[in-house]
Each structure stands twice: as structure tokens, then as C-alpha cells.
Amino acid sequence: MKKTQLSIYLDPEIFASLDAYAKHQGKPKSLVAEAAIGSFLSPDDSDRREAVIAKRLDRIVRVLERLERNDGITLETIALFIRFWLTSTPALPEQSSQAARAKGAERYDRFVEALGRRLSSGSTVLNEVSIESPELGSAAQVKD
Q1: What percentage of the chain has pLDDT greater than the value 90?
Q2: Total structural domains in the chain?
Q3: C-alpha–C-alpha distance, residues 90 and 108, integer Å
Q4: Coil/strand/helix, residue 114
Q5: Is 32:14 a contact under the CB 8 Å cutoff?
Q6: Same domain, 36 and 67
Q7: Range(s) of the domain holding residue 28
Q8: Which of 51, 128, 133, 141 has the greatest number of C-beta atoms within 10 Å?
Q9: Are residues 66 and 115 in the same domain?
Q10: DSSP tag of 96
């Protein structure tokens, strides 16, 4: 098949990239340019790109849904704990407030240490909730 000649003007940077790529591949510049133009004009290329983008968007949606679920569990857990704590903890008398603050600071430090150990081990309450609760577990098992 006879090919048609085409004269084009390229920016120096694009020409340098074309030249370097052609030399690296050991191919003539006209063959590299022809393949690039053919790929650009190919209808399959846009379909392929659209499919890749749709797949990525689906994955992002699943990740966001999982994050939203985890946030909901976290907020519900904190709200339930606060409600329980407020309803079950009696007010302290004035004379013992200093000792209570000291004990609270000590407990807080132990809590932060335990949290650090737990996070570094990779074990999370969300995983335990998912394992222990079948209806939550199925929602957590969303695959990428």
C-alpha cells in the first residue's frame, strides 16, 4: 500500500521527544508519528480509556462507601460511650477533684499507650465488629 506524505510543524520540545523516542526504539520518526496518530484517532482508544476510568471510579466509590461506613460506626461508638459515661458517672465532691484530675491524667496516658500499641499491631475495633457482627461483616467485605 502506498503511503501519503504529510508535512507537519512541531514544537522543538515535541520534536526532541519524538527524535529521542524513535532513536531509543530504533525506529524511523515517521513510523513512530504514524503509530501515535493512529492511536490518537482510534475509536477503541477512547472506549478503552473510558472503561479504565469507569473501573477506577467504581473502586473509588467502594472505598468511599467503606470509609463512610467506618465513620458511622466510629461516631456511633463514641456517642454511645459518651451517653453511657455521662449517665453512669457520678459527680465528684470538691475535696477530691485534685486527686480525680491526677487519676484522670494517669488513665489518659495509659489509654494513649494502649491506643498506640493497638494501632501499631494492626488490630482494630472495626475489624472485630465486622468479624463478630454478621450483618456488618458482609458490608465490610466489599472487594476492590
Answers
A1: 30
A2: 2
A3: 19
A4: helix
A5: no
A6: no
A7: 12-41
A8: 133
A9: yes
A10: G
Based on the fold, state whether residues 32 and 66 are members of the same structural domain: no
C-alpha grid cell, residue 52? 479504565
* Co-location of 69 and 31 in the same domain: no
Closest CA to 136 of 120, 122, 125, 123: 125
For residue 3, give the 3-state DSSP assignment. coil
Between CA 33 and CA 39 the distance in angstroms is 10
Q: Which of 118, 140, 9 is closest to 68 using CA atoms?
A: 140
Residue 112 located in a structural domain: yes
Let me know: does 105 contact 29? Beta carbons within 8 Å.
Answer: no
Predicted TM-score (pTM) of this structure: 0.44
pLDDT tens, 14-59?
999 999 999 999 999 999 999 888 877 877 767 778 888 999 999 9
Sign of CA dihedral 111, 117, 120, 125: negative
Provide the pLDDT for residue 127: 72
